[in-house]
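Per-record layout

source: Methylophilus aquaticus
name: Phosphoserine phosphatase
length: 279
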Amino acid sequence: MRLVVQGSSIHLAHLTHIHGLVGGHAQFMQIAEQAYYLPVAEGVYDEVNAFCVQQSLDCTLVQDAHRLPRFGLCVMDMDSTLISIECIDEIADMMGIKSQVAEITEAAMRGELDFSASLRKRVALLKGLPESALQQVIDERLQFNPGAQAWINTCQQHGIKTLVVSGGFTFFADYVKQTLGLDYAVSNTLEIIDGKLTGQVLGDIVDGQRKAEELLKLRDQLGLQASQTIAIGDGANDLKMMSVAEIGVAYHAKPVVQQQATYALNVVGLDGVANLLSA
């Protein structure tokens, strides 16, 4: 195993204290400007975790076999994972009903509501909104999470194919795919007639089960093994795709996701995934 510690506030005193908690003769090795790893024996590091949380650092025990050259596919959620917003909440804000829709979104992400039913309920509230509001969300509100482009660049450098699979909407997923240089995108399509949203979603909903199916389908198309796949997400509807991947990374995720993920990042950006796997 290797203990990966990273964060913008990391300094020598942190590493010295952690080394003292872990013990052993190995020394920390630097991975990136704000990331280090320490070879360790497998075990429980509750004191290290508690210290890192207190110091706003991410610390992760990573299996030695989990290194970038091993992988061939990374599948990622979009809203609150690759991008910093929940698109449907921002669309709803155009109609003055953001708080109403965001409350449903939050409950669905915590796993308290059926995702498909909750999505149809939220989309129905958007009926009559001009299509131009979707572009307005992109122009004024959509931002990529820190490290998103760096992580995609790392995937490309290692020949790892990338897929964004989202319970959000094609209008945004296609933009994210094109802007970041992803290989594939799968998402929901809003019905638009005469330039206005009808309040309906076309076709089957991309829910948690569909996300898992898309990962498996693309994995098989690429001729990869399960051990060559990574999934990254933040909400309960990402759990199924994370469970069928070799590695499930919870990125600034809901507690239920962090509990079931292989690894969790709560402080650093998406480039922290590369640090986990490149040591």
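summary: The chain is about 40% helix and 20% strand. The longest strand covers residues 184-193.
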